Structures are given as structure tokens and as C-alpha cells.
Amino acid sequence: ASGRTPLMAGNWKMNLDHLQATHLVQKLDWTLRDGKHDFAAVEVAVLPPFTDIRSVQTLIDGDRLELKHGAQDLSVHASGAYTGEISGAFLAKLGCTYVAVGHSERREYHHEGDDVVNAKLKAAYTHGLTPIFCVGEGLEIRQAGTHVEHVLAQVRAGLDGITAEQARSIVIAYEPVWAIGTGEVATPEDAQEVCAAIRTELAELYSGDVADGVRILYGGSVKSGNVAAIMAKEDVDGALVGGASIDPAEFAAICRFR
Ligand code: PEP
């Protein structure tokens, strides 16, 4: 929509070991090239588990693939005594462009609140990574009809202290929790309502210029069969795709949404 380059990002979650990751990236690249995919017109990124990133980077660099890659999370810290954590500095050295921050599975299973999400967004910028900042409401909030307020509160809290220059490059993913991994996709109108509200909020927090440039993705049970209707909406600039992104033919079909 309006001059913004769509982004299709595949969140593999905790799936695929390094051999499977290598196969998937090769198949995805072949399928996209077979379909004459224009990577400048629709950007494609994969977010593998940490342990696959080196292999994915080697393939992408070695074969000069036009796919981009990133991580699913990062530490709030740069280095030190934080056992099991992964620094954004390490991700930057592995050629990551993107890092997902605040995915609902992190918020729910790892108790990441808005303060942690805010610190992770800042850490991403410190290390030159572009955050894919995830927000979205649960089912109860949707049923109560307060989903827009809820999501905008997450946006404001996450962006606290983030400068306009930083915000210009951010990617925001609106992912209603009730639609993630459930097969129950939001309607295009639901997606548009919240993505438009996020853009208006960005205009208030920063400027109309920043708001116009930021890519806002929809995520939640996106498939090749429902992506076109969602992408037709003015304020939806791409998709964050979970389950369907580990099937290369299906993910390639999503990337060819037009
Ligand atoms: C996700 O993991 O961000 C996601 C949207 O998952 P799914 O596409 O499987 O609903």
C-alpha cells in the first residue's frame, strides 16, 4: 500500500534443525525464482531458530540469495552473565536484518511485559537490527471490544523513548492472539481497523511522514488462500507468517499474493 514495499516474514518458531533449515531456504529460493519473484517489489525474510541462523546466512551469502534473514528474539543485554541469552550483537554479526520483538508466545510463555519489550526494541536498535515489533489482543479483549485501545497501549509502551529516526525503520506486526496458530484468520476489515489505528497513533507520536513510511504487517493464520484479501487493505503492508512459512511452496505462494 501507498509506496511502502510489502514484507513477507516467515517465523519458523521452534521448528527445523540446521539440515531442514538449509533445505527449506533452498526450496524457497528455487520456488520464488521459478515464479520470477521480484524481491525489490515484495521483500521476503525468514526468521529461523538461533541455531539455524549461521547455516541460513552461509547459504544466503554464498549463493547471493535475495532473501533476508533475522531472529525471533534477542536479549535486552549486550553481553555478560546472562546464561542462555543471545545478544543482538551476535545476531548482527550473523547478518541478521530483522529481529522479532514481543511475539505473543514470548509475552505469554516467557512473561515478557511491555517494559521488557521496550528494552528489547532499544537493544535491537543498539545493534543495528530492524525490529519486527509484535502487538495484538487476546480473545477476551477482542470480545469486550477494547482491542484497538489495548493494541495502541502496547504500541505506546513499546515505543517509549524510541526516537523518530529509529521509528522510521521499525516494522510493526499486528497479530491478534486468537488468530495465531488457530486457523482462525482475522477478516481483512479487522486487520485494516487495527493497522490503520496503529498508523494514526504513529502520526501522533512522531509525524505523518514517519507514520506513512512504517510497514505494518498482519499476522495470524495467513495462508495462500486468504493473503490477497488482507493485502488489498490500505494499511496492511505485509504478513508475519508462522505455520505456513515452513512449507516452501505455501510460503512462496503467500509471497506471490498479487
Ligand atoms: C506467528 O507466529 O507470528 C503467526 C502468525 O503464526 P501462524 O501464522 O501460524 O498463525
Automatic annotation (TrEMBL):
GO MF: triose-phosphate isomerase activity
Top class in the EC scheme: isomerase
Pathway where this protein functions: Carbohydrate biosynthesis; gluconeogenesis; Carbohydrate degradation; glycolysis; D-glyceraldehyde 3-phosphate from glycerone phosphate: step 1/1
Binding-site residues, substrate: 11-13, 181, 221, 242-243
Any single GO BP term: gluconeogenesis
UniProt entry keywords in alphabetical sequence: Cytoplasm, Gluconeogenesis, Glycolysis, Isomerase
Keyword Transmembrane helix: no
EC number: 5.3.1.1
GO cellular component: cytosol
Keyword Cytoplasm: yes
Catalysis performed (reactions): D-glyceraldehyde 3-phosphate = dihydroxyacetone phosphate
UniProt-annotated catalytic positions: 103 (electrophile), 175 (proton acceptor)
Localization (cell): Cytoplasm
Complex formation: Homodimer.
Function: Involved in the gluconeogenesis. Catalyzes stereospecifically the conversion of dihydroxyacetone phosphate (DHAP) to D-glyceraldehyde-3-phosphate (G3P).
Name of the molecule in the record: Triosephosphate isomerase
Species assigned in the record: Phycicoccus duodecadis
